[in-house]
Amino acid sequence: PVVPAPCLSAGFVTFGCFNTLAKVTPGVRRLWGRLLAVVPNSRLVLKAKPFACQAIQQRFLAAMAAEGVESWRIDLSPLAGATAAHLAMYGAVDVALDTFPYAGTTTTCEALYMGVPVVTMRGGCHAHNVGASLMAAVGLDGECVTRSEDDYVAAAARLAAHPGHIAELRRGLRERMLGSPLCAPGPFMRRLEDTYAALFRRWCEEEQPGGAEPGVDGGGGGGGGGEIRRETHPLEAEQNAAAAVAAEAVAAAVTMDAKAPVNAAPKVASSPAEDANTQKE
Fold first, then answer.
1. How far is the C-alpha of 201 from the C-alpha of 203, rounded, in Å?
2. How far is the C-alpha of 257 from the C-alpha of 91, rounded, in Å?
3. Which of 132, 143, 235, 266 is buried deepest, with most CB atoms within 10 A?
4. Given a cut of 50, is residue 266 above it in pLDDT?
5. Do 98 and 118 meet the contact criterion of CB atoms below 8 Å apart?
6. 225 pLDDT exceeds 90?
């Protein structure tokens, strides 16, 4: 379940990021340091697998200290034991912070599902823009999608300055997400199929002289009923031939297995350690 925003009872705002630690680059740490300096008394919660190691925790805290953030303002946790426990940890986060240039995807969707808005930044490639796409899908691109580091800090600080707005977002964000294109597989597949069709038409125009589609009335050899008939590409022919050979080999192997006598498989003795593992499972 979605729990109330922690800032309402704590008296301070907690930022959080559950993305993989490899995405938290020096540039990301530097920007988070700027943000925590702008929002006094705010906290930062991070969850990542490497934080199971105390040495890595200390190294990360030292790196953030170099950015001016005291260790008491940061909580580091390893991975949770189950999905329910992982999602429940969003109960300690008011505003999620996306990474860059490699943004989150699943993690961002999980944050939205738990009622937590995610501040993200646009970039110059797909991996950088996933967060922007997800925020746009739930109608938060206006206040959560930024275009520069300064905008990123300003957007997160603006949210932190309005706990009531954070609480309002939290109450309705899951329903907003479930009603968005993110959770509408039918329309998504129709758009995807339309894209495939457009790509195929473009391929036909590039491959055929004069831009005519092969096998369609009005060009490329004709044909009735608007049915597309295209010549087999040489590479595709080779792949089909290889597939046929593989199919014959599989059929032959199945035939040989069917004729072979059925013998009970020998039992392999297990070691005491393996027996112990089996008991644990």
1. 5
2. 57
3. 132
4. no
5. yes
6. no
Which residues, at least 6 apart from 73, have a Cβ–Cβ distance to it below 8 Å? 36, 42, 43, 44
The encoded tokens of residue 190 equal 């129709």
Give the E-state strand segments of 58-210 in sequence order: 74-77, 95-97, 118-121, 145-146
What's the rounded Cα separation, in Å, for the pair 220 and 44?
A: 63
pLDDT at 248 over 90: no
Burial code (b: 16+ CB inside 10 Å, e: under 16) for 182-201 equals beeeeeeeeeeeeeeeeeee
Within 13 Å and on the Cβ side, how many CA atoms surround 44?
A: 26
- Of the candidates 119, 114, 129, 122, the one whose C-alpha atom is nearest the C-alpha of residue 157 is 119
Measured distance between the N- and C-terminal CA atoms of the chain, rounded to whole angstroms: 30
Q: Pull the structure tokens for residue 62.
A: 């030292």
Give pLDDT tens digits for 116-166.
999 999 999 999 999 999 999 999 999 999 999 999 999 999 999 999 999
Q: Is 156 helix (H, G, I), strand (E, B) or coil?
A: helix
Asked if residues 120 and 146 have their Cβ atoms less than 8 Å apart, the reply is: yes
pTM of the prediction?
0.72
H or E stretch at 15: strand 14-17
Looking up tokens 């977002």 gives: 169
101 secondary structure, DSSP code: S
In 18-88 the beta strands, taken as DSSP E runs, fall at 43-47, 74-77
Mean of pLDDT over the chain: 84
- What is the secondary structure of 245-260 as a DSSP string? HHHHHHHHHHHHHHHS
Bridge partners (DSSP) of residue 45 are 16, 75
